[in-house]
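chain below, 85 aa
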Amino acid sequence: MEVAKISSKGQITIPVSVRNALKLKAGDKIVILEENGRFYFENSAMLAFKRAEEAFAGEAEKAGFTTEEEMQDYMKEIRKEVRGY
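prediction:
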């Protein structure tokens, strides 16, 4: 357990062990989530990535890709088309 003190401006310093665990660096944003009266901090970039990953789960299989290489090759083709070469 870590303890942080609130300044007169409502600011807190997140302890280094917590910043490291959340992979936070200067300038990063955090999301504060509430669940049953308890509050949780999460790295906003990691949360967004996690939610995108969950949203796309199973979509490659639905599209007929059987390997990651097939999907990457398809993405390369799309990039070529978009770039025009």
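Helices lie at 16-21, 44-56, 59-62, 68-83. The two ends are 55 Å apart (CA to CA).
thats it, cya
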